[in-house]
Amino acid sequence: MMRKSALVVLVVIGMLLAACGPAMVPSAAPKTETGETFVIALPRIVITLDAKGKPGLEGVALEEIAKTFGMALDLSAYSVDPAYVNWMTNSNIQHIELRQTGAGLALLVNGALMPHIGWSDSSLNQLTDLAPLLWLRQDMVKKFVPIVSRLGLDLVLKFPAQAGAKAIPYAADQIALAGAAPAKDPASAVVKFEIKYDAQGVPAILGISAQDLVAMGFDPNLPLALHPYYVEMLQLNNVQHLEIRSKSDGLFVYINGTPLPNIVWDGKMLGSVADVVVQLYQTVLSEDYAKLIKQFAPLISNADVGIMIHFPLAKGAVPIPAKMH
C-alpha cells in the first residue's frame, strides 16, 4: 500500500503536469495590508472520473508516473460512488468548477456561473474578528486570511459525457469573474423588520416577545430563542447587532454594520441553478413543476428583504449605531 506522503507527492507532480492554460491570477492586490507581497496562481487543473468513479488527472497517467518512481498506485480507495457519476452523466452534467477569483469562490456547472461566496479584505477581516464565536484561534485565522484571497486555484471535476453529447466548454474568464448584475425592475417583494433580544435570549418584534406569543397560545418551542450562554458570548465579543440583507445582487450579512463574506447572486445565476435542478431531477419532475422552478428562482433575487437583529449590550459598551443597508 502506498504511503499517504508518497501519494501526496505523486498527486502534486501529476497536478503540475496536468495543469494547462494560463495561470488563474486572483483579482486581489498582491500586496497585503501589512505591505507584504504574496500571490500564488496556478493554471486550471481537471480531475476526471470514469464511469466507475475512479479519479484521475486529465492528460496525465498517474499510474505511469508511479511506475517511474517504483511505486504501485491504486486509486480505487478514492473512488466516487458510481451511482453519483451515472446520475451526473444521465443529467448531462459534464463538469463542475471551483475557481478562487480573489473576490470569492466562483462555482460553475457546465460553464454557467452559480450563486457563490464573495468576499473582500474587509469582510474577511471581520470574519477574523468573529473567530472566537466559532471556537477558532483568532491569531491563526488572521494569519491565513491574506492567503485565502491571493491564492489562485481553479479545480474542475469532470464526469463522463453521454454518448453523442456535445462537449460543453469550460467557462471563459468574463463569465467566471463576472459580478452580480443588480435588477432594474421594482422589487418583487419587500420584507423588513427588526428583532430585539433581551439578556435571557428572548426575542421580541414591535415589543411582542416570544413569551407573549406563548401566552396567546402559540407553540412554546419557538426556534428563535437564544440560550443565555450565546447571548453572553455575543456580549463578550461586542456583537451589538446583526443584519441579514437580501437584494438583487446577493445575500449579505453585517455585524455591527460591517459586512461579512456574502452570497453573490443575480437573476441569471439563480436561473442557472434552476436549470441544473431541472436537469438533475428530470426523471421525477413533471413539466409543470419544472416550469414553476424556472419561473420562481429568478424572482428570489429581486426580493428586497432586510432583518435587523439587536442583542443586549455588555455593561459599559459604547452603542454602535444600527442602520439597515
Description:
This protein is an alpha+beta fold. It has 2 domains: 176 residues, no CATH class; 146 residues, no CATH class. It is built from 10 helices and 17 strands. It has a 15-stranded mixed beta sheet that branches. It has a two-stranded parallel sheet with strand order 1-8. The longest helix is centred in the first third of the chain and has 15 residues. The protein is globular. It starts with a helix and ends in a 15-residue tail after the last strand.
What shape does the CA trace take?
Answer: globular
Unreliable parts: none
- Classify the helix fraction into a percent range: 25-40%
Radius of gyration: 24 Å
Count of all domains: 2
How confident overall, as mean pLDDT?
Answer: 83
Span from first to last CA? 57 Å
Task: Give short descriptive properties of this protein.
two-stranded parallel sheet; 15-stranded mixed sheet; alpha+beta; 325 residues; 2 domains; globular
SSE blueprint and pairings:
Layout: H1 4-18, E1 40-41, E2 45-49, E3 55-57, H2 62-68, H3 82-90, E4 95-100, E5 104-109, E6 112-113, E7 116-118, H4 121-129, H5 138-148, E8 151-152, E9 154-158, H6 173-176, E10 189-197, E11 203-205, E12 208-209, H7 210-215, H8 228-236, E13 241-247, E14 250-255, E15 258-259, E16 262-264, H9 267-280, H10 287-301, E17 303-310
Parallel strand pairs: 1-8, 2-9, 10-17
Antiparallel strand pairs: 2-3, 4-5, 4-9, 5-6, 5-7, 7-16, 10-11, 11-12, 13-14, 13-17, 14-15, 14-16
